[in-house]
Amino acid sequence: MKPVKVGVLGLGTVGGGTVNVLKRNAQEISRRAGRDIIVTRASARDLSRERICSTEGISLSTDPLEIVNDPEIDIILELIGGTTLAKDLVLQAIANGKHIVTANKALIALHGNEIFAAAGEANVVVAYEAAVAGGIPIIKAIREGLSGNQINWLAGIINGTGNFILTEMRDKGRDFADVLAEAQALGYAEADPTFDVEGIDAGHKLMILASIAFGIPLQFENVFTEGISNITRADVEYAGELGYRIKHLGIARKTTKGIELRVHPTLIPERRLIANVDGVMNAVLVHADAVGPTLYYGAGAGAEATASAVIADVVDVVRTLTLSAKNRVPHLAFQDNAITDLSILSPDEIETTYYLRLTLEDKPGTLADITHILAKHNISIEAIIQKEPHHDETELPVIMLTQKTIEKEMNSAISAIENLSSVTGQVTRIRLETLG
Ligand code: NDP
Ligand code: HSE
Description:
Distance between the termini: 51 Å
Bound molecules: NADPH dihydro-nicotinamide-adenine-dinucleotide phosphate, L-homoserine
Oligomer: single chain
Helix content: 25-40%
Radius of gyration: 24 Å
Shape: elongated
Largest sheet: 11 strands, mixed
Number of helices: 14
Strand content: 25-35%
Structural class: alpha/beta
CATH topology of the largest domain: Rossmann fold
Number of strands: 17
């Protein structure tokens, strides 16, 4: 059979890694796919730039549209990123009858509904395994491996850059900015790294996971996101004293009232496996009714780890080239006419437990004021650590763990606490999940 021709848009970390692995493992990949797969065309902005891959035998261009419009190309790999040019290229490639493989979570989370509809019309596949959790085959696991289950909730460390930063801060006492710069140099971070540290990238990925877990439309605007930029080394240490690790988690949970979709720093008991997922590694814990909890672990970013997921999608597309799109796995796991518009809970309705850190004046009655406010909002305290002031210090840090409460009540309580004259600065609040 004649080889399948692939056009690669973007020759950066992921594009370069994909070209390398496709070449190195060509024979093994061909044995699996049933056809040879060759990259015949590729694009980048600056063709004079040094690449991590060899481009020998590949016709290069600065214009990705040329490749999208090339009738010789069977599959387009969109590895540019962003949601403007990438969206136009993907829609044009679909209109041209080409299958798409993308690693672009922002594109899928924001425009996936429109893209999948266009792909359905054109009878082509849009595959996006690499968009969530780098090299971990989590899309396949949920969409296919768990299709006999009702999924109750999932929680994941789904941003490699953020996890790398938190780990280096905890283990080596390094500064936030310094570790972020290293993550950028290693090719882990997004073009705009605020996407990583403010939870936007994890929010995109969580939205995709929730859609395929619960059969709901993509709706990124309903994901609550909070980043890690306010986490201090002191918080990491206090959490440790209490037996917890701080991780930046994406959580999607089906409740009787609706679906929680949230990304935020979270205290997790340190005995949980997921609490020990460090560095650029990602993990997703899925709780489903039949199988119970399953945990998926692997590299969340990086050239070849992500290439592994990109190529798995290419192989899937090649294997099914002779089938009608209707017989393939549905884009969002559920049949198009079975996607349901379940309500997404507002962040105010989230129910969880909290770690609070505040600074109090060292005088009688101040702690009682705090506990009084919490009691007024029906918030019970689970544990409290009151640090002794050093010699002439007049303020002392207090750390509390609460029992489960509603976010709205916690917001009001925090405002009231911050208004007390005996409290200095803001209250640090980190949500806590036992993941039991
Ligand atoms: P890079 O910035 O390393 O690569 C982007 C590539 O696209 C570069 O080759 C660049 O050209 C090209 N490009 C950028 N803008 C344009 C443009 N306007 N016109 C033509 N070409 C353009 O990004 P990554 O490889 O890191 O990321 C690519 C995608 O993969 C993103 O969607 C990202 O979110 C996703 N992803 C990244 C992972 C990672 O570990 N890095 C992991 C999983 C997903 P040039 O090289 O000349 O600048
Ligand atoms: N910037 C992303 C991360 C790349 O660090 O997880 C992988 O999606």
